[in-house]
Design goal:
9 helices, 304 residues, Rossmann fold, globular, alpha/beta
Length: 304
């Protein structure tokens, strides 16, 4: 018996990297799958249904169950089709995993509008595309014990502010906010929502120059996308009802829990602020001597 026996999952970005690893592990654990991938290059151009078809073929030949869709996930009709495919073919839907993404890296002062729009579209609308019809279905089930799952993907560039990925960071931190909202809105319907911030050598990472990456055999094994799949599989199972609205990091053989945003200090005034009084209070309460904020934190990230 696998941990996902009898469960039905949609996985986007399923053809390569993390999406392919998640799909294979889900199938090995007994899930029935609807796999989506446009088959574009890392920057979102082009398309080919061949790669995702190969993943499904491997799963089916190994005794699993998977069907494919090659639609553009940022087209909301694709999301509706994925959900209807699951319901029509398998009779239900339990899990949505949103992995699909693209990169168009530039410093903010070199970033073109179309590169901003393309990344925002694939990530944010791509998540909305599956989540909107899935949540509509789950709300209609009125089953607080449904063990329904939304698993989104954010990134280190969002959580730590990669200087060369302003579009990616904006989109992925938006996904974190979306995840918080979903966790609050959907808990009464038996849905949990969590986000994964992965660290793995994937086709998207392959766009980084070789001289900036370590590619030793041990590093390749440790940073395989296969090592992201176990935490996704755990979250997709029926035993993870206790965790929702959180961001988990996964890299190599480590899984990390990120803090949710929280107020760490407050200053106040008895009336309208005097600018000098405000400056004195925030420097005392928030400044370097309190170890709350460190003005030099991002200095190393500034372009030369």
């Amino acid at each position: 018996m696998g941990s996902l026996d009898g469960r039905v999952a949609i996985v986007t970005g399923a053809a390569r990297g993390i999406g392919a690893s998640v799909s294979r592990m889900f199938a090995a654990e007994g899930a029935k799958l609807v796999l989506n991938d446009l088959g574009s290059s890392e920057d979102g151009t082009g398309s080919s249904i061949g790669p995702v078809t190969e993943i499904a073929k491997d799963i089916n030949e190994s005794g699993g169950t998977a069907v494919v869709d090659g639609g553009d996930i940022a087209d909301t009709e694709t999301g509706r089709h994925l959900v209807s495919t699951a319901l029509d073919g398998y009779g239900k839907l339990d899990i949505v995993v949103n992995v699909a993404g693209i990169v168009r890296d530039r410093m903010i002062f070199n970033l073109e509008e179309e590169d901003w729009d393309a990344v925002i579209r694939v990530h944010l609308r791509g998540h909305f595309s599956t989540i909107r019809p899935a949540t509509e279905y789950w709300r209609g089930q009125r089953n607080p014990d449904g063990h329904y799952r939304i698993i989104n993907f954010t990134s280190q560039s969002a959580l730590q502010g990669s200087p060369g990925q302003p579009n990616h960071a904006a989109a992925r931190v938006g996904i974190v906010g979306l995840t918080y909202s979903l966790a609050h809105a959907m808990s009464r319907y038996g849905v949990t929502a969590n986000a994964i911030s992965p660290g793995a050598l994937t086709p998207l990472v392959a766009t980084i120059p070789d001289d900036k990456l370590t590619r030793s055999p041990s590093a390749l094994e440790e940073m395989s996308p296969d090592n992201i799949a176990p935490i996704v599989t755990y979250l997709a199972g029926t035993e993870s009802d206790w965790i929702s609205g959180r961001t988990l990091g996964a890299a190599g053989y480590e899984v990390m829990l990120w803090n949710n945003p929280d107020v760490i200090e407050t200053v106040s005034s008895e009336g309208p602020w005097n600018s000098k009084d405000l400056a004195d209070k925030i420097e005392t309460a928030f400044g370097p001597k309190t170890h709350r904020l460190h003005p030099s934190k991002f200095s190393a990230l500034e372009p030369g």
